[in-house]
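quick one: glutamine bound model?
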Amino acid sequence: MKLHELTIHHAHELLRKKEITALELTQAVLARIEAVEAQVGAYISLFPEEALVQARAADKSLAMGTCGPLTGIPLAIKDLICTQGLRTTCASRILENFIPPYDATVMQKLKAGGAVIVGKANMDEFAMGSSTEHSAFKPTRNPWELASIPGGSSGGSAAAVAADMCLGSLGSDTGGSIRQPAAHCSVVGMKPTYGRVSRFGLVAFASSLDQIGPLAKDTTDCALLMNAVCGYDPNDSTSVPEPVPDFTTFLTPGLKGMKIGIPKEYLPAQGLDPDVDQAIRNAIRRMQDLGAECIEISLPHTRYAVAVYYVIAPCEASSNLARYDGVRYGFRDRQADDLIQMYRRTKSQGFGPEVQRRIIIGTYALSAGYYDAYYGKASQVRTLIMNDFKQAFERCDLLLSPVAPTPAFPIGEISDDPLTMYLSDIFTLSANLAGIPGLSIPCGFSRNGLPIGLQLMGRHFDEGTLLKAAYNFELATDFHKQKPRL
Ligand code: GLN
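yep, here:
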């Protein structure tokens, strides 16, 4: 048995029965990182010494019997979640040497649960991108095909799980950044309902869309990570005091009585790869075999989602990123002669081209005279998109769709073509605009052996139904059990 290949729930069982120790488990994961990280490039920072200290502490609580499901479990954290005393870069030169003086709420929760943090995962700079090519430090490679992207922006988090360089990870999803890399790397990824997980200590990209969520080797692990990170937090004014269920209680066999809506606008869809189309149709049939009823529904306004998102997200980003001015923290150009030149030079050297593009678009769209035409109009259409979902959920319990229109593309293929890159978010953005939960699970492979993901979307705060459907799909298939050859 290779320890680094364990799921969280299996590792927990072995730890509890004292068949393995947290130290052995962490050492196995660190050895795996040592062996494959040079090929994959999933991490920006690694903390092997700190991880071993945490593992020893976990072994103590295991010995005393005061352990939880994450005690001694090695995890990776996307590098835009603040970790006290440990560098948090957002994959940007502007935060290259930033060491947060506090832990994000999710970090406090993971630490309290005894988890072992092995490192900070690579991502697109400030989470802007769908390929992890926009990291200021290096691209991450897809463990299934090293010449291809792992998806993004949580590409490091997804690749680390897929390549067994951690047992699970956290990412963030503003417009698909957990679900799309999960799909491209054949792991499970969930964007929880907006407000379900505290954003305190998550470096803000687009505040009305951002959510932290788990990436995992299977649905059970996803549920366990959800249990650990969800919950109301007075430090985040948009967090919702909704009771958090034990998400593992939804993992029961049988889909009888479940109604799944298939958005007719998504299948067939323009530009949808035939292998993806086929895999999704097979998944629909599988859900029916499992007892679910599949009905056609319509989301007429989601065709505006890309346009709406790429106004709202850059507007909010331009406001959020104004704080990186070189004055209080982060990179500062020291050669400037005056204040304005210092701002200008700090930002042009500190931010990469994609981040600069978003700031410029957002600043333009928010400027006097354009606000109503862009941000105002986009917000109105956002409401129409929300209403589409509300109506759909009157007729069904969840929605099923592709995650990405194509399997992972080769590194460099569309990195200079922002519009094509933006269009690849077509199926994922609407869930963020509506604030509803979304999940990606492995559902097949293309003829070239690249993973394909299936998206399930649900009502606000109904992550449980998504996990139940995903769990049943998993019981009936073995896509999630396959491993990349590295
Ligand atoms: N690809 C989208 C973007 O570039 C989504 C990113 C995300 O979810 N963080 O904005």
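Residues 127-130, 153, 173-177, 205, 313, 425 surround glutamine (CB under 6 Å).
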